[in-house]
Amino acid sequence: MSYHNLEIDTEFIACLRRLDERAFGKLFHACSGLVYSIAMGLLGDRQAAEDALQEIFFKVYKALPDFEGEKLTSWIGRIAQNHCFDMLRQAKRAVVTSVKPIDDLDISQLEPVSDEFPDFLNSLSLLEREVVILKKVEGLSYKEISQLTGKKEGTLRNIMLKSLQLLRGKLDEK
Amino acid sequence: MKNSCENFILLLQDYPETAIDKESQEHLAVCENCRKLLENHNQSFDLLKSQLTLSPQKKQQIFARIHQTIAAEKTQESNTPFSTFLAWLFAHRLQLVLPVVILAFGIMFFSQNNPDSKIQISGSAVILRNMEKIELDQKSLQLALGEKISLLKGRLNLFWNEIETVAIDGRLDFSAADMSIKAQSGEAVMNFTPSAKGYLIETRRSLLKIVGTTIKLELTDNSDVIFVEKGKIEWALHDNSRKGEAAAGIRILIRADNRGSLTVEESPFAQMNSADGAIASQSPDPGVKLIKSGKDWVFQEIEPSGAEKKQ
Ligand SMILES: [Zn+2]
Asked: Ligand 1 centre from B8 Cα, in Å?
């Protein structure tokens, strides 16, 4: 995948930090697929994911001058994930009359059902679904997903195993 | 479930990064369940991959919108340097030196941004303003600096400080500011009067400097086509990677490919009938050049001549 070697190019990173338009265009075309996958995984809706993609890259643009040479992919992935979590919290706040502070709302409790996904993915939590998409669709390593989500690699492997067992379970039902 | 079936599902955790080893291949040969699982795994994730892939057109559209948001923010920032500056002064308890600094700053400020500048449109045209359809019918309408307008049909004349600068004919989403027009999309013929010399047209991909010109624009999501009907323009891509001059009879095609990289082609075309809506065009002005200095576009004089040029 094209974003895997972006990090190595220090000159490219320097161009990004001074908001060179060409470099930003290159970054968008390399990473928009990853960001869209994260947004779809968490939001489960095409239109919402497209809007999120736009807003996330605007945030990325504003944050680029402060980017400190860590992994670009996981940095963008985290911005994307946090943005979607914020959207989900707002949506949840709109429907739930909760006295809990917003930060206590657990993303993993949110309804993951979307007709965009096969059944076995809808049986997972939102975060689990995101992990499976990052692994199987975006081809990230467990290490990269761990940097992005903050979950331990062992946890991620368990999530993957759970999704495969669900897939096998669906086959047995047939 | 047999042990080897469990081993196979563990292997799928890392598949396809990790290939199916010999042992698992042997297991697959004898276990229909695991064969079905592998087949379904591949089908499900291939389908998901295709569902989660944005078309190049969609990507381009979204990127254009990001570009627009960034540009809009930049305009907003540059429109309020004075108030930002005042806020900064007060925040730093520098009221005492204020009068002196205001004087110095005021000179800078007003020389860049004429406080009296007014933009008006009139003509026989249908426009969309704030989601409202308006029939101009020769009425004159005042626009705010940078306000977005869509010309739906007909022809409108744009006046800057009550001097007609351009007639726009066709369909165009645009906004006008001091000495510049931002053209988003559409197809239109733009006839500039001599007073529009030095005007800038900014499209999503390029900057065009007007030197007594009639041009026709065809702006789409994937390309800018600029027909220079009369006079001459200077053009440059936003990243300044390519720029040039085009005289009457030249068509400039700026095209974005799937990955967003731009190609520029210049070629001759058959011009419109010059009697059609002709506004006096001046001889091309060789005295100013558009150059990029840092993030800003500036005009650089090549030879000291024109009294009407202002920086
Ligand atoms: Zn088996």
From this structure: 7
Q: Are residues A46 and A73 in the same domain?
A: yes
The single residue listed with the structure tokens 């047999």 is B2
Q: Which two tokens stand for residue A17?
A: 């930090």
Q: What domain range is A52 assigned to?
A: 1-93
Q: Does B43 touch chain A (CB under 8 A)?
A: no
Same domain? A81 vs A102:
no
- State pLDDT tens for residues A26-72: 999 999 999 999 999 999 999 999 999 999 999 999 999 999 877 88
Within an 8 Å CB–CB cutoff, is residue B62 touching chain A?
yes
- Indicate the fold that domain B115-310 takes in CATH: Jelly Rolls (2.60.120)
Closest CA to A126 of A49, A30, A31: A49
Q: What's the CATH number where A164 sits?
A: 1.10.10.10
Nearest to B172 by CA among B123, B137, B114: B123
A89 and A99 belong to one structural domain: no
Cα–Cα distance between B80 and B109 in angstroms, integer?
10
Q: Where is the domain boundary, A78, A93, A108?
A: A93
Query: Is there a single domain that holds both residue A78 and residue A152?
Result: no
Q: How far is the CA of A126 from the centre of ligand 1 (A)?
A: 29
Q: Can you give the CATH number for the domain in which A63 is found?
A: 1.10.1740.10
Is there a single domain that holds both residue A86 and residue A101?
no
**Closest-CA residue to B58 (of A2, A49, A114):** A49
pTM (predicted TM-score): 0.53
Q: What is the pLDDT of residues B108-161, one digit of tens each?
A: 333 334 445 678 898 888 888 877 788 888 888 888 878 888 888 888 988 887
The CA B39 to ligand 1 mean position distance, Å, reads 13
Closest residue, chain B, to A49 (C-alpha):
B52
DSSP string, A17-31: HTT-HHHHHHHHHHH
Contact A164 B36 (CB under 8 A): no
Q: What is the ipTM of this complex?
A: 0.88
Mean pLDDT computed over every residue of chain A:
85
Indicate whether A103 and A67 sit together in one domain. no
Q: Is the dihedral of CA B307, B146, B184, B296 positive or negative?
A: positive
